[in-house]
Specification:
The chain is α/β, with parallel strands linked by helices and 667 residues long. It folds into 3 domains: 2-189, Immunoglobulins (Immunoglobulin-like, Sandwich), CATH 2.60.40; 195-257 and 274-321 and 356-555, TIM Barrel (Alpha-Beta Barrel), CATH 3.20.20; 568-665, no CATH class. It is built from 18 helices and 32 strands. The chain has a 7-stranded parallel β-sheet with strand order 15-18-21-22-23-25-26. A hairpin with a 4-residue loop joins strand 19 (337-342) and strand 20 (347-352). The two termini are 42 Å apart.
Length: 667
Amino acid sequence: MRQIRWTRRWTVAGVLAAALAVCFTGSLAAQDQPAKGQAGVKVYASDIHDAADTDAGGEAAITLVGTRNGAFTGKVVVSSSQPITGLKAACSDLRQGDAVIPAARISVRYGVPWDISIGSFYRPKGSDILLESPPAEVPPARRRPAVAPVFVTVDVPKDARPGDYTGRLTVEAKGLNAVTVPVALSVQGWTLPDVQQWRTWMELIQSPDNLAAEYDLPLWSDRHWEMIGRSLALIGRTGSRVAYVPLICNTNFGNEQSMVRWVPKGDGTYDYDFSVMDRYLDAVQKNQGTPKVLVLYVWDVYLKPPKAEFIAKIKAKGSHDVPMMEARRALKDKGPPVTVLDRATDKAQTVYLPQYEDPAGKALWQPLWAALRERLRKRGLDKVAMLGVVSDWWPSEEQVAVLKDLSGGMPWASCSHHTRWLPAQTKTGKGALYGLATISYVAAALEFEVTINPGKERTYGWKNPVLFGQFWRMQHFNYRSHSTVRHEAECHITGNLRGLAHIGGDVWYSVRNKRGKRAGNASARYPQSYWHSLNLHSWLLGPGPDGPVGTVRLELMREGVQECEARIFIESALTDAALRAKLGDDLAARAQAILDEQQRCLWRAKGATDADLAKYGHVANYRTYYAEVHKKWDEAAGNKWFITSGWPGRVAKLYAVAAEVAAKVSQ
């Protein structure tokens, strides 16, 4: 296997190879030897960026490169001409002399593909869903044998001794004697910050309603809360730090209910039940971590219905948006919908309140907001709370004024195609929303800049003073190559943005049509809140039989963000005169060279050629990127190149030089 052999060349003076020889030669019992050709079953190594699970050649082994306080994944594949049954795998401790990474910190999971009823346009590639228990049976495909990828993820302790660790993965299946797969991990000496201290901006969106639809659960039942906790824990591993509390119903996120329920007093006024919101925030803080942005979802597009003339215009053009606009238009005389709870029957229903700008509507909301702001203050979340969500459609000036007054002047969060209002807001300090309110968290699809060749120019998007993340529309993270998913955050922190925003977490297609096929996620139930191409159609979690689980793409994203953190740490020193002086010229030059090579290679992995690298430095316009750059690239070829390019060696160098920088700046 080219990757394994190459990897051993860069490990410390062959120590890893010698350790493998001691562990896996001569000491194996006969029954532990690979069963060659037995019933057409074999085990082979494959790169984690290869969605086709191709045999990489050479021995079946897992070789990982990582650093302290990070998580790192590899895989082997079981293949058979017959259905694979009885599959199971277990990993031993990893050892380096008397230093041990215990098996309890090692996850073994089994890759399975997505339901084919999700059309290929939206369906993630390969055996992407990572089950914690093996599937009962893996059948052969039409033109290929049965393949069952087995993934090993090592969660490296913060205090792990740097160096080379070895262990073994034992794989079994019917017709296959126990196969012992060598597992080797090279741990570098740099320590990743704890996940909630990461500086790469990440946002994965959690959807309680999508989980309820997937598992046919009553909203807010104990089982539903268990599913929510699992989702939030998976999302939290990426450093995602945004949470949403819908205060209105039927939004673009697909929520049937508001998280604050209104309880009639019988005199036209209400009490307010905060129990769902409180429990949700408990779950967020326990499983995902303390939010850096808490979006109070108070506005959606149906609260500003289109005019009849606009609908007639798009109908004449044959736009497929007409049904959604008509659904929105049908609500033109209604205000925000909320969940009203009957205490006597414990039944909930949706009630439309007067419009925000109606004095009667504002009066109903005032006591809720007073209580809500106090609750957030006690949790320490009042300073990170924002109103949401502005999209390509904005609330009216009257609505903005009322919500500013009710919330005590909270800023807004947005998700849009463009942000032409942002430069003016940034320069003047005046709010983009009619001069009344600022938009302080920005997710946008078409305002990115990238730097392809740092030899021509270097940019530091992670330093952007505006909390601005790239939103990739449509099914981007479902169909892009695995190396693209890994590097997407780094593409933007080396451009003009802080990271990635508005990515679907558990918003896979859970809603089925009359034929039982997966036709959409929970938001499809509410056409009045349709955001056109800003709707969420990609996701990084998957449905397991007992609850949400991770995916291959989630693990790749996490590893990519960890590399971003190493880059930001190093660049923080390189761009600070005092810290750079501590490094000295030699270390500063070596560190910069490693970062530059990493950056050029992530663009090669997207399909950039040497000619592209020679031509492009900083690409300051998304139209140029799409027209002149991206559409000409062969992403599949780029991913293939990346797999065989010696990427683990570059990762090792990145973390190793981060350790050197840390040692110098701490002096």
